[in-house]
Amino acid sequence: MCREMQREPAWVAAIRLALLRGSVDVESVVEEANLVPGRERTVRDVLSTMAERGLLVERDGDDHRYVPGPVLLDSDRFDLDFSRASDGGAHRWGSPGRGRAGAE
Questions:
Q1: CA triplet 81, 40, 11: central angle to 5 degrees?
Q2: Average pLDDT, the chain
Q3: Higher-scoring residue by pLDDT: 43, 6
Q4: pLDDT in tens, 30-60
Q5: How far apart are CA 28 and CA 61, in angstroms?
Q6: Which one, 34, 37, 64, 75, has least CB within 10 Å?
């Protein structure tokens, strides 16, 4: 997360919204991630890529609105706390001893 701007990656916001609200669209991701205006095209690309990878599924008859896809539904990760997902959370991977991921 960009702490100074209180922004997070669009994909983190999309996953959180998809799992917690049941659907996601460009506008909701822009709002949730606190992105600057004009990033809608980037978010649209992120959502379509997530759909290609099975994380999201485009809802029939509703252009650019997505619901959780099989990868998210089958991930068995519904007990995770997404309130701080981008602040040292799931998207920060590292080897032991490097940064927050390995620090205890």
A1: 25
A2: 77
A3: 43
A4: 999 999 889 999 999 999 999 999 999 998 7
A5: 18
A6: 37
Strand partners, 68: 56
Are the CB atoms for 94 and 51 separated by under 8 Å? no
Give the C-alpha distances (Å, rounded to integers) separating 63 from 7, 17, 47, 56, 94. Answer: 26, 17, 12, 13, 37
Q: Rounded distance, CA 98 to CA 60, Å?
A: 44
102 vs 22, higher pLDDT: 22
Sheet holding 65-68, edge to edge: 24-25, 65-68, 56-58
Whole-Å CA distances, 59 to 24, 66, 69, 74, 96: 10, 5, 10, 18, 40
